[in-house]
Amino acid sequence: xxxxxxxxxFSALLGGLLFSFLFWKERLALNLMIYSIFILIITYxxxxxxxxxxxxxxxxxxxxxxxxVVINNSDLSLVSYYISLILFIGYSHNQKIRTVxxxxxxxxxxxxxxxxxxxxxxxxxxxxxxxxxxxxxxxxYVFIPIVIVTIFTCLxxxxxxxxxxxxxxxxxxxxxxxxxxxxxxFKDLSFSRFMHFCFGIMVTAGLLISFFDKSLQQIELKCKxxxxxxxxxxxxxxxxxxxxxxxxxxxxxxxLALKTEFITGLISFAALNLLLLFLNGIDIxxxxxxxxxxxxxxxxxxxxxxxxxxxxxxxxxxxxxxxYFFRGNLNFYSKSKALRIxxxxxxxxxxxxxxxxxxRDGYYIEFYGLTHKRIGVLVFALLCVIGLISVYIKxxxxxxxxxxxxxxxxxxFALLLVFSLVNWDIFIVxxxxxxxxSISVDADYLLSLSDKTLxxxxxxxxxxxHTESKSEYGTExxxxxxxATNQQKLNQRIGFFKDRYERVSWISWNLQxxxxxxxxxxxx
Length: 524
Prior knowledge:
Blueprint: H1 2-23, H2 30-45, H3 53-71, H4 75-93, H5 100-112, H6 114-123, E1 126-127, E2 130-131, H7 133-159, H8 161-185, H9 191-208, H10 215-221, H11 239-248, H12 257-288, H13 300-325, H14 337-368, H15 372-396, H16 401-420, H17 424-434, H18 443-447, H19 454-459, H20 483-503, H21 511-519
Antiparallel strand pairs: 1-2
Helix pairs in contact: 1-2, 1-9, 2-3, 3-4, 4-5, 4-16, 5-9, 6-9, 7-8, 12-14, 13-14, 13-15, 14-15, 15-16
């Protein structure tokens, strides 16, 4: 216990130094991978962490995400990095957890409570006959009031601009005071750099020091993946029962409640099938059979932006309704076969609806090119397909909602890593410019993408001009930008990249910036 506490505290201190060295005024790239390797090694050396298969899988997944940050350096790769790090920490210290959602919550709770965990760990540290317990008794009297005062200061500052002005002035004076002290002792050390170091210690401690409360893990262990028929005791009432009784009267206490729910579900699914059949018939006629390929008949912009979001929401709501009706004893009802058939038919119709969404998106991409939002529609449609398949398994195999969370959570995380493999900004620019003869090129949008696209844009300078595009009302959009204006914007972007690239050190190295610098022959 003593050696473990010393290792974790020393690692937190070392991690704070490493954090300050790697991330102070640097871009997120190679430094993230170096920091992750440090976290992985220390977590592996922690005797409380079991080196199971789950530990290795999520450790490898996080290392892959860190490598992708160095290779692609995209916003999606950063999101993948942070989520994989949190999941790795959550699973490492709570290896009986089965869903990514609980692992995520456990890791966040662990990091939020890092002061308490650090104090508990420090109480176990002994240097000879000296221990920290008396010291931290005094810290308790100071730390808690500081936290309370800080919270209420933020609240009062938000409520009063005058109070915020004086609070800001006080903070500036305190910062200047510490800057003078640190500037006198260490010429190269500022108060902001010291606070950055302290923040690094807090982050590292939150990632490394074990959370002593395993309540989330214990709660999840009670969750089952297979539905079981439960004999309900009507005399045993919960708070939710009493709340529901206010709106339902004595319906909950009737013996025919299960039959009533069955009839309600039967009518609902029959009506919804007819409604969706009508909508799918319209889509098949106008979209699948090609009637909608004439702009005079269908406005693709309105259909995509206004219609697609509603359709995806309706699919998600459909899955929620199916989950609701098949959440409990209705799965074991002797006459539930007809309800299952209607539910399966509705799932098939929702799958047809997803195909219609994909056709809409495909038409829009064909005429206007790729954007992140249009790719996002494809991703959401894929997630809806996966969700419908998992709901089908849930109904047919009589699985629980917890099973759905476990299955979909793992699939979503795997897809996040897969999608991070693609450099989407470059893919979008290359696709749109290579199809500039057939689509409406939005030069403003292409010039707004990340610096990694600059070499592709520079090679296609003559294509950065206005091409006709129309609003959702059919009128042409007036754009004053000319080819010369867009090329000037590109030159400014290249200049900004050069200044930014020359300011950072090797710690911020990533493959895409290096390729861009090589293309424009920029050296540090």
